[in-house]
Amino acid sequence: MPSLQSLLDQVDRSVDEIVGLEQSLIRIPSVNTGFMPTGNETPVAEFCRDWLGSERVESHILGRDPERGNLIATVPGRQRKTRLMLMSHTDVVPVENVSKWRYEPFSATVTGGRIYGRGASDCKALLTAQLMAVAILRRNDVRLEHGLRLVSGADEEHGGRWGFGWLAEMHPESLESEFAVNEGGGTAVEMAGNVVYLLGIGEKGRLEIHVRFKGESAHASVPWTGKNSSFGLSEALKRIEAYKPELDTSLPLFDHLSEFAIEDKPTPSNIDRIIAEVEPKSRRLATLLRALSRMTLTPTMIKGGIKSNSVPEMIELTCDVRSLPFQHEDYVRRQLDQVLKGVEGVEYDVDYMSVPNQSPYESELAEAVKRAQAAAIGRSDIRWAPMVSNGFTDSRFTRNIGIVTYGFTGVHPSDDPTLTNAHGTNESTGILSLVSSTKAMIALAYDVCGGR
Ligand SMILES: [Zn+2]
What we know:
Blueprint: H1 4-13, H2 15-26, H3 42-54, E1 58-62, E2 70-75, E3 82-89, E4 109-111, E5 114-116, H4 124-139, E6 147-153, H5 164-170, E7 179-182, E8 187-191, E9 194-203, E10 205-214, H6 230-242, H7 271-278, H8 283-291, E11 296-304, E12 314-323, H9 329-340, E13 346-354, E14 357-358, H10 364-377, E15 383-389, H11 395-400, E16 404-407, E17 428-430, H12 431-448
This protein binds zinc ion.
């Protein structure tokens, strides 16, 4: 019976292998533009299937489209049911401007303790750590009491309709598990000498608002004969800029501010002062507190007019809205009605891109995550706080079908999370985090699935 420590020690001896695995994954470009045909995730899934096969781990590929396969691997336990699912995704976002990259984006260049490449951080690092974790458990013939699953989905970057969204709807049995961990949380913030990990327990909602301004076209040389819709737009933009969202401090994070050495009890009336005091010490924490204490309403695109000498009859403004987990559509509509009240010729509709979602912070999984991270980095002094993410991931699909899902990746506290630059130029991952992440996944699986 291998001890957990002996498994973690093997990770330290496998660094070259882990780096090599991550490089192989980055070198398969699985770029998702959002427009079919795209993604081409199947080669990544096939690579993982073959790699796992050589480690005696069974897996299969399931896809709505043959080019967009999802990888599903299972390690059976003594009991039939799966207790833990390790989640990630295989697609990556496009490269915007190759000439700005220091190294070719799919070369997976290793330098200065980091691996550079599109997908290096989002999300092939987590996939690497999870694959390696499963392999090390198998190499040591660790016997599990409860089943373990590894699922890497396609299309995370464009809504998951070919990935977890499709699996949850058409093949929920392939995701069956009590608990899951995924991207979208688990980074560390350092404040007043404390290392505080942010466990991703939920996600804000994302809505797209299409606001239309109606006027009446006319020749621009006699503009008074028509009605210029751009003036409605200008009034609306002024109102949106002045919009003061209602402040709220009811998310669980606000009950844990003492972990960050913030002693004031946050309330809607003092939260902006607290944020202002945090700002010089940690911009990341300040941004998080700001995003989690209010809904945001942000104009992002304007479309309108048909000719430079015609009064525009119609202008459309698109806004991005991020709502808190308890702010549903009727709340968002009330806010918009208030903001746009009295603007002439205006109407809007609301499109949900992602519904806000949340798992409870109090769970057996949360306790296991804390133990796993402490074991992975060999520190017993780390602290934890529950975070709701302002972005969204595939976790919304698994939370929806009743799986307690956390954003937890096991990154190393000395690895600056701003260096990863996910979705940006020179995306990279720290080898230090790749190693701690592998250890964290092993420790978590060993604990939750009852390894012996
Ligand atoms: Zn991602």
